[in-house]
Design brief:
It comes from Ktedonobacter robiniae. This is Tn3 transposase DDE domain-containing protein. Residues 1-234 form the Tn3 transposase DDE domain. The chain has nine helices and four strands. The radius of gyration is 25 Å and the shape is extended. The strands form two sheets. A two-stranded parallel sheet has the order 1-2. Strands 3-4 form a two-stranded parallel ribbon. The protein has helices at 2-6, 26-35, 75-80, 82-94, 99-106, 114-136, 138-161, 174-203, 214-218; strands at residues 16-19, 38-41, 51-53, 69-72. It folds into two domains: 2-136, no CATH class; 167-218. By secondary structure, the chain is mainly alpha-helical. 50% of the residues lie in helices and 6% in strands.
Length: 246
């Protein structure tokens, strides 16, 4: 997720990233915060989430939240590892190291790296802030849901287009992988371009003028493919025999 955000090969300035439940973790929340964008997940198991306290204090505070409250954040650990957090985040941003290599280093020999522990602690704080906003704001939940719907719709279109070999890139050669992905991107662009022209042609007709409202236009998207036949057309003529004789 982090690699895709940092190296998306466009001029877009990423401010937030929508992910499903499996796309988030406490370490991911920490890295996203340090790198300057928000991680906005749609949490499937929202009922099992816990809120961390900002500081130690009266354990009886917030009586209505007691079932979901847990310990206080260890701010001293984050402060002591601050320079290391920035160092690894800068390595990610500049591309001198990838997220997989960094995480592998943190968890090597099953001994938790102190910087990894600090990342997890910072992530707990950021996730708690997000959960409070997520539970309080219906607009935020709706925004995340709509954003993920676009992504999932696009992924389903990719699966529809890239149907050869079960949609898998079954090669370890980087050149072949690049050709496969570039071909997929070319087909994506063609599909969106043709669909856009078709939608424009339909909406330019007199019968549609004045019928669509602003929310209707917001719902329009060129990411549809139900009209596409990826396998070609086979015409069967029952009145003609195949010429199979020698």
């Amino acid at each position: 997720m982090i690699e895709g955000i940092l190296r998306h090969c466009t001029d877009a300035e990423i401010q937030a990233n929508y992910v499903a439940s499996h796309g988030q973790s406490e370490v991911a929340f920490a890295f996203c915060h340090v790198l300057g964008f928000r991680l906005l997940p749609r949490l499937k198991d929202i009922g099992s989430q816990r809120l961390y306290r900002a500081e130690k204090g009266n354990p009886e505070e917030f009586a209505n939240l007691q079932p979901v409250l847990t310990r206080a954040i260890d701010w001293d650990l984050i402060s002591n590892q601050y320079d290391e957090l920035i160092k690894y985040a800068t390595a990610l941003r500049l591309g001198t190291a990838d997220a997989e290599s960094i995480l592998r280093r943190f968890t090597r020999n099953n001994v938790q790296h102190p910087t990894y522990r600090a990342l997890a602690e910072l992530g707990k704080a950021m996730k708690t802030i997000f959960l409070c906003e997520y539970l309080q704001s219906e607009d935020l939940r709706r925004e995340i849901h709509e954003g993920l719907n676009v992504v999932e719709n696009w992924n389903s279109a990719n699966g529809f287009i890239f149907y050869g070999r079960s949609g898998e890139i079954a090669t370890n050669r980087l050149d072949d992988q690049e050709i496969a992905v570039l071909s997929l991107h070319l087909l994506q662009i063609c599909l969106v371009y043709i669909n856009t022209l078709m939608v424009q042609q339909v909406l330019s007709s007199e019968q549609w003028k004045g019928k669509l409202t602003v929310p209707d236009y917001r719902g329009l998207s060129p990411l549809f493919y139900s009209h596409v036949n990826p396998y070609g057309t086979f015409r069967l003529d029952m009145n003609e025999r195949l010429r199979l004789e020698a």
